[in-house]
Amino acid sequence: MAKLPILQYPHPKLAAKAEPVADFNDAIKTLVNDMAETMYAAPGVGLAANQVGILKRIVVIDITDDNSDLLVFINPEIIETKGDLVDHEEGCLSLKGLYEHVKRPGQVRVHAHSNLNARGFSPFVFNMKSITLTALFLSITSAN
User: Fold this and answer.
1) What is the pLDDT of residues 117-138, one digit of tens each?
2) 42: alpha, beta or left, given left = phi > 0 and alpha = psi -120 to 50?
3) C-alpha–C-alpha distance, residues 108 and 119, integer Å
4) Other CB atoms within 10 Å distance of the CB of residue 48
5) What pLDDT is attached to residue 108?
6) Pairwise CA distance, residues 29 & 8, whole Å
7) C-alpha–C-alpha distance, residues 79 and 118, integer Å
């Protein structure tokens, strides 16, 4: 496994549309492992492939304190959101040191390489990474 460089905003690949993964080969397995190592070393709880310069629809997430529950989403799509909007502080490894409060649905149903129903903190992380994968970027303004 290898630690990959994390691109920082305003790198153009962060605003580029990621392409679906068509071939689930050893290169994709290696990329997923490298992304996980990179995310853990940062440290972070989620990382999209375009944040490491790869324009593929891949996201890794692990919200545990001991890095014991790695979730991998390949070609993810949000198919349902429900529940009350919950305010939560978020950060981004491509926006080092910046944290903002964002309201997101309490539950998210995701279709990826397999169906997963993320609950609890995971929807916040997945929503943020979905935004990154679809080339929508949160505009953050600050008063000086």
Assistant:
1) 444 445 666 666 665 555 444 4
2) alpha
3) 7
4) 28
5) 81
6) 24
7) 12
